[in-house]
Design goal:
The complex is a heterodimer of chains A (257) and B (292).
Chain A: E1 5-11, H1 17-23, H2 27-36, E2 37-42, E3 54-60, E4 63-64, H3 68-80, E5 81-87, H4 89-93, E6 113-114, E7 124-126, H5 133-148, H6 151-170, H7 178-184, H8 194-198, E8 204-207, E9 210-213, H9 223-227, H10 235-238, H11 241-251
Parallel strand pairs in A: 1-2, 1-3, 3-5, 5-7
Antiparallel strand pairs in A: 4-6, 8-9
Helix pairs in contact in A: 1-5, 2-5, 5-6
Chain B: E1 8-14, H1 17-21, H2 28-38, E2 44-50, E3 57-62, H3 65-70, H4 85-89, E4 97-101, H5 103-114, E5 126-132, H6 140-150, E6 158-164, E7 167-172, E8 177-181, E9 206-209, E10 218-222, H7 225-236, E11 240-244, H8 252-273, E12 277-278, E13 284-285
Parallel strand pairs in B: 2-4, 4-5, 5-9
Antiparallel strand pairs in B: 1-10, 1-11, 2-3, 6-7, 7-8, 9-10, 12-13
The chains are: A alpha/beta (257), B alpha+beta (292).
Bound molecules: iron/sulfur cluster (SF4) (3 copies).
Chain lengths: 257, 292
């Protein structure tokens, strides 16, 4: 592949689960790194100490605003990256780090954790704890097509990424309650159960055909709302599920039928 | 486009007398899943089983013919089958998942396939998605109100429910029949159904419903490569008796009409939501549009 894009993994306050989810594409990860993207920054995997220029920054974790290094690194990321992806619930919405009160050994003064979107502008939001491996793979492939593909591929990639860009614009707060506020209260829930399947902590059960959220259990990862077919449903992309699935399969080097 | 993309449309019914006798139409879903289970095309299927209360469906993962057969019958209320899509690949350990669902559930499924945000390892395991036709659905308590309040039949006494010829009918175990005009049931419809823009499960591999074909038969749309291959194998294996859809009455004309009616009506609802309220300058204030 002639023109690989450059990608970095920027690690803020997260558990490395998002990076592991990316790695769980197994040979798919190697394919991405062989053909589509050079990994130019990733503290866990690459020996580069300072945030370099890059096309796409995949940011995992929220930002502790009492940690100068973290604040500087996230700002540097915005300055150096063309596209910033909030990868996972913590970067997107704070997720479990929202519950921090400080006092933990041995940096008790670290008590305020913000989604990266509260510090820098975010282009693409991919929620979940962690986001599904195949979702990260799809975003990587689409980012490549957006920057290096043919005109037709650019258009497809833009259409694919649009709802995730809209999620970034929607804000930095998420909760299982979004299913109430923005789906049920809006008269849009049809009881499909997708939200219940998507919750990583099983906080959602379907009761009389509607999601019932155990609000104490919810970690605020944003997966349920993003996965709900009544949060966003872009017919132009999803109607083409068969050809897009084939396209991604081909990009991953999996033979056709 | 109201019928979605499809490679072929036929009238069909199962050749299995046992399946047919327990079905309100051609027994397509049960027969096709049974064939797919036998052939190893799927390891199991998410279907609507019997829930905790009379006429309440509950999604179950069926991994044997017996479990599949135990879950038959139309229930007129929502079974949130998508709720098990990840669990089927986890606790149940299925690598090839079958799922039956309404058009909206097929939408949830395909969104999960393309945007598997909270659906790790699910996309590659979806082996066969059968969609049903759906005009609207009733929440359980809505159905209960129709049956118990309007039709004055206890839910546990009802042996059959039916929608047809402008009426909602409930049959009791003692041979009674209670009917109300369908018009009375509209207010109990699930509100979320009123923005639904799909009648015949456009996003399924194979979709099916009784509309368009005579009693005891079903209309079948074969849509995807996967659907085409499974359907062809099942027909070759003698699972189905088929007729060209052009040869049956009322045929695709009625399906097209109902699909157009549903989509036109619901498109209007979506549009009306854009100016549901009123802003300070007098212009409309919108409810959320899921399709933007
Ligand atoms: S995924 Fe959305 S539409 Fe489906 S049950 Fe949950 S909230 Fe309702
Ligand atoms: S309910 Fe579950 S999926 Fe939804 S935000 Fe909370 S933890 Fe995430
Ligand atoms: S009418 Fe639409 S939203 Fe309602 S149950 Fe049927 S397919 Fe789902």
């Amino acid at each position: 592949m002639a023109n690989k894009i450059t990608v970095g993994h920027v690690h803020m306050s997260g558990c490395t689960g998002c990076l592991v989810s990316l790695a769980d594409n197994y040979e798919g990860l190697f394919k991405i790194l062989d053909d589509y993207a050079d990994l130019v920054y990733a503290l866990t995997l690459v020996d580069v100490r300072h945030v370099p220029e890059m096309d796409v920054a995949l940011v995992e974790g929220s930002v502790c605003i009492q940690d100068e290094n973290a604040v500087e690194e996230i700002k540097e990321t915005r300055r150096k990256a063309k596209v910033v992806v909030a990868l996972g619930g913590c970067a997107s919405y704070g997720n479990i780090t929202r519950f921090c009160r400080g006092g933990q050994w041995n940096q008790p003064q670290h008590e305020s954790y913000l989604p990266i979107g509260d510090i820098i502008d975010v282009d693409v939001t991919l929620p979940g704890c962690p986001p599904g491996s195949q979702a990260i793979r799809n975003v990587c492939v689409m980012a490549y097509l957006l920057l290096q593909g043919s005109d037709e591929q650019k258009a497809l990639a833009a259409a694919y990424l649009t709802p995730l860009m809209n999620l970034a614009k929607r804000g930095t707060e998420a909760c299982g309650c979004d299913l109430m506020y923005d789906v049920i209260n809006q008269g849009l829930c049809m009881g499909c159960g997708t939200c219940a399947a998507s919750c990583p902590v099983r906080a959602i059960t379907m009761v009389y055909g509607k999601p019932q959220i155990d609000r104490d259990m919810c970690i605020k990862c944003g997966a349920c709302y993003a996965q709900c077919p009544r949060s966003f449903f872009n017919f132009d992309v999803i109607n083409e599920f068969e050809s897009i699935t084939e396209l991604i399969g081909a990009a991953m080097g999996q033979g056709g039928e | 486009m109201v019928l979605g993309n499809y490679k072929s449309a036929v009238a069909a019914r199962s050749t299995d007398k046992g399946i047919l006798s327990a079905s309100q139409d051609g027994g397509i879903v049960t027969q096709l899943f049974a064939f797919a289970l036998d052939e190893g095309i799927i390891d199991g299927a998410i279907v609507a089983g019997q829930g905790a209360e009379p006429w309440m469906p509950e999604p179950v993962v069926a991994t044997t013919r017996a479990e599949l057969f135990a879950a038959r019958g139309t229930r007129y209320t929502i079974s949130p089958n998508m709720a098990l899509i990840k669990e089927a690949t986890r606790s149940y350990g299925l690598d090839k998942v079958g799922i039956v669902g309404t058009p909206c559930q097929m939408q949830g499924l395909r969104k999960a396939q393309l945007y598997p945000i909270g659906m790790r390892d699910v996309p590659d395991k979806i082996a066969l998605a059968i969609g049903i036709f759906c005009m609207e659905n009733f929440p359980y308590q809505g159905l209960e109100t129709m049956v118990e309040d309007h039709c004055t039949v206890k839910m546990e006494s009802a042996v059959k429910m039916d929608i047809g010829k402008g009426k909602f009918s409930v049959y009791t175990e003692r041979g009674g029949l209670s009917q109300i005009p369908l018009k009375l049931t509209h207010k109990y419809e699930q509100p979320g159904c009123h923005v639904c823009l799909d009648y015949v499960s456009n996003l399924a591999d194979v979709s099916t419903g009784s509309v368009g074909t005579p009693d005891g038969w079903s209309t079948v749309f074969v849509r995807t490569k996967v659907g085409d291959s499974v359907w062809a194998r099942a027909v070759d294996a003698g699972c189905f008796e088929t007729k060209p859809i052009e040869d049956v009455k009322p045929g695709l004309e009625l399906v097209t009409k109902l699909a157009t009616d549903k989509i036109t009506k619901n498109q209007k609802t979506v549009e009306a939501r854009a100016s549901f309220g009123v802003k300070a300058d007098g212009s409309g204030k919108a409810l959320r549009n899921p399709y933007l």
